User: Fold Nucleotide-binding universal stress protein, UspA family from Parafilimonas terrae.
Amino acid sequence: MKNILIPTDFSDASYHTISYGIALSKSLNAEKIIIYNAYQPYISEDPEFKPVLLNEIDMYKEVSEQAMQKLKDTFREKISPGTQLICEVDYNVVEGGIIDVSEKYNADLIVMNVSSTGALENLLFGSTAVSLSKHSKIPVLIVPAEAKFTKLDKILLAIDLKNTKTTAPVDHIKKILDITNAKLDALHVLVREKDTDNVKEEEIEFLKTNFAGYNTEYYIEQAHSLTEGINDFAGKHQSDVIIMIPKKRGWLESIFRRSESKAVVFHSHIPVLAIRE
Assistant:
């Protein structure tokens, strides 16, 4: 993970996320940190609303550039000497702009914030983070507003023990373990007792074979809901980050519906790393 992209809306929450991302970049020996802002005024389809004029777009651009310069001045000295800081603003929709910039700079990781506050901009930006975590081809790290960076010593992998051979992003996880030398706790949550019938021993054996040589433990635990099981386990075992795999079908699919994904990332103090299957 050499190139880290950190989108910003210039909120206090995003400043916190940039600080977190910079600390993370040092532990990952990152080569580039790209801080990006997509500015675009809200455009209503209501005919009573006037269209956005070009001079208004120029105004948004100027405001974005000024805010980015202030941000750059704030964080420039906190970047490791060997890491390049790139700051970019663009007239674009937020999610599309993030994807475009991630491809432009060959980003390995996107770091975004969410906030449980009622501020509209925080909720919109948080929704973008959740949406990206479902669709992005590269890993997305979602950082709650209360999260404080700690060395990644314990990683929780919330995994669906079904079709693991074709869905588990083993190589991605191994790269993270190689860099951090962290302990990996693999957790399958049983929401109903009958779910034990779906847990096949060969799925666990597949993980044990692929993660042989790594410090890994495997857990199957019951809970009233997936989010409760994941959050409770993470708190009890002092996990530093939670890895989740947004599947098209299966055990974790419901987690990445709007209400469930927010239940994890908005009500956890622990960052959530989404890696697509």
Remarks:
- The chain has a mean pLDDT of 81.
- The CA atoms of residues 2 and 30 lie 4 Å apart.
